[in-house]
Specification:
single chain; about 500 residues; alpha/beta; nicotinate phosphoribosyltransferase; TIM Barrel; 2 domains; seven-stranded antiparallel β-sheet; six-stranded parallel β-sheet; 15 helices; about 35% helix; about 20% strand
Length: about 500
């Protein structure tokens, strides 16, 4: 969704529609078979609450960056089963060859409009495992249908925004350019990856369509093929300088890298004489640390101390950190494949779980998924997250049941070790993370502009201790269940297992 937008009915309406608009059929079949079952048994209007969260930080990171909400809002605003959608569903058959869905159910879907209350963590927020990123409360049929699309849009963009934030932390404030279009998973994957990478801190993208769609700055120079199409490297650089004197970053490693630097310097003198600058050189192979140091010497000796050295070649946060440690003279980082594909952790693993169903008498019946693995036992209730702060930084997050409220004196219990607890006095500064997005199906949220979301990431990360942001073996930020919620969850587990 383009971030230059107009307000419509309390929401921001996209001025540039996505390449492949998400429809109501962006779902798994079992969501629709369950929806049919709810309708068939007369349970479709029972109020339920679902939570979208993830269980482990990606990339062995100490945090994640929430992203994708703007696209979720766009999807929900336009959630409709179109006539051709319904015709397709009507053509589906079960294993006996008969129609999978009754005509009455398809008629119900034709008139379906979102009526849920939806709360979510704003994009660009630093988040942690088990915290709800999205909460859906409303008729169970609606909540069920939303699961797959919400996971699809939140999982991927959160994953890429987190990777980008880690890469940018490794670059220590130097510009990071996202170069991943050619290796991205299709058109939609490429676009959303560019968007999420920009949110995470990247300065620009090579993806021109992403630039147009989202207003992201675009950057690019030339490839090896340009150099190879001329008889000499010098001739190639000279021709490029004549064509684009205001955009000269020369790729110098086609033949001999340091000789390529010398040729770039020669053309740089020609540019300078005409009032232009040699903006940079790019290294794309070899020993980047040594080559950048030697290239820097050549550039400085020739009077091109302001010419940047750009590096690419399968970079990620770990390689950038290593190059920094080796004293590499690189000032701009081009990161592609390992960013947009989340190369070392290709899926976030977000899940969507039922937290409760409202009884006919108006009270809530908590619902919880049990598992042999403690990490997979879901938390019942209508969940909210409270973030506690000292004068200078965030210190802990507590998950509590919104129906019961947040106690003034708040104790959080470590989900891994219940004997570890943190207590916070009533005077402790705190904020709730989930904010209203839809109320009774009407959007009440204005999606911030993309640069604003990007700035939120920078601001948010500055509020957390350095240990949380370490690339390797990060400190574990305290996140726990509010004491009362922990006790109720424990009692339910004991009851379900026949131990109480």
């Amino acid at each position: 969704m383009h971030e230059t937008q107009e307000r419509t009915e309390g929401c921001l309406e996209s001025s540039s529609p996505p390449i492949m608009p998400a429809t109501a059929l962006l779902t798994d079949l079992y969501q629709l078979t369950m929806a049919y079952g709810y309708w068939k048994t007369g349970r479709d209007q029972r109020e339920a609450v679902f939570h979208l969260f993830y269980r482990n930080n990606p990339f062995r990171s100490g945090f994640a960056i929430a992203a994708g909400l703007s696209d979720v809002v766009d999807y929900l605003r336009n959630l409709r089963f179109a006539p051709d959608d319904l015709a397709y569903l009507g053509s589906l058959t079960g294993q006996d060859g008969r129609g999978l869905f009754e005509a009455g159910f398809l008629d119900h879907l034709a008139g379906l409009r979102l009526t849920c209350d939806i709360d979510a963590v704003p994009e660009g927020t630093v988040v942690f495992p088990h915290e709800p990123l999205v909460r859906v409360r409303g008729p169970i049929l609606e909540g069920q249908i939303l699961e797959t699309a919400l996971l699809n849009q939140i999982n991927f963009q959160t994953l890429i925004a987190t990777k980008a934030a880690r890469v940018c932390l490794a670059a220590r404030g130097e510009p990071v350019l996202e170069f991943g279009l050619r290796r991205a998973q299709g058109v939609d994957g490429a676009l959303t990856a560019s968007r999420a990478a920009y949110i995470g801190g990247c300065s620009a993208t090579s993806n021109v369509l992403a630039g147009k769609t989202y207003g992201i700055p675009v950057r690019g120079t030339h490839a090896h093929s340009w150099v190879m199409s001329f008889d000499t490297e010098r001739e190639a650089f000279q021709a490029y300088a004549e064509a684009m004197p205001h955009n000269c970053v020369f790729l110098v490693d086609t033949y001999d890298t340091l000789q390529g630097v010398r040729e770039a310097i020669g053309v740089g003198g020609w540019l300078r004489e005409r009032g232009h600058a040699l903006a940079g050189i790019r290294l794309d192979s070899g020993d980047l640390a040594w080559l950048s140091i030697e290239a820097r010497k050549l550039l400085d000796e020739a009077g091109f101390s302001k010419t940047a050295i750009v590096a690419s070649n399968d970079l990620d946060e770990h390689l950038i950190e290593s190059l920094k440690g080796q004293g590499a003279a690189i000032g701009i980082w081009g990161v592609g494949t390992k960013l947009v594909t989340a190369y070392d952790h290709p899926a976030l693993g977000g899940v969507y779980k039922l937290g409760g169903i409202r009884r006919p008498d108006g009270t809530w019946e908590p619902k919880m998924k049990l598992s042999e693995q403690a990490v997979k036992i879901s938390t019942p209730g209508i969940l909210q997250v409270c973030r506690f702060r000292s004068d200078t930084e965030c210190v802990a997050d507590g998950i509590y049941d919104e129906e019961r409220g947040a106690p003034p004196e708040f104790t959080i219990v470590d989900p891994v070790d219940p004997t570890r607890r943190n207590r916070f006095a009533p005077a402790t500064a705190r904020e709730t993370l989930l904010v209203p997005v839809f109320r009774r199906g009407e959007c009440v949220y204005s999606s911030p502009a993309l640069p604003t979301i990007r700035e939120r990431v920078r601001s948010q990360l500055s509020l957390f201790p350095p240990g949380i942001k370490r690339l390797a073996n990060p400190h574990r930020y305290p996140v726990g269940l509010e004491l009362g919620l922990h006790e109720r969850k424990t009692a339910l587990i004991m009851q379900a297992r026949g131990l109480s």
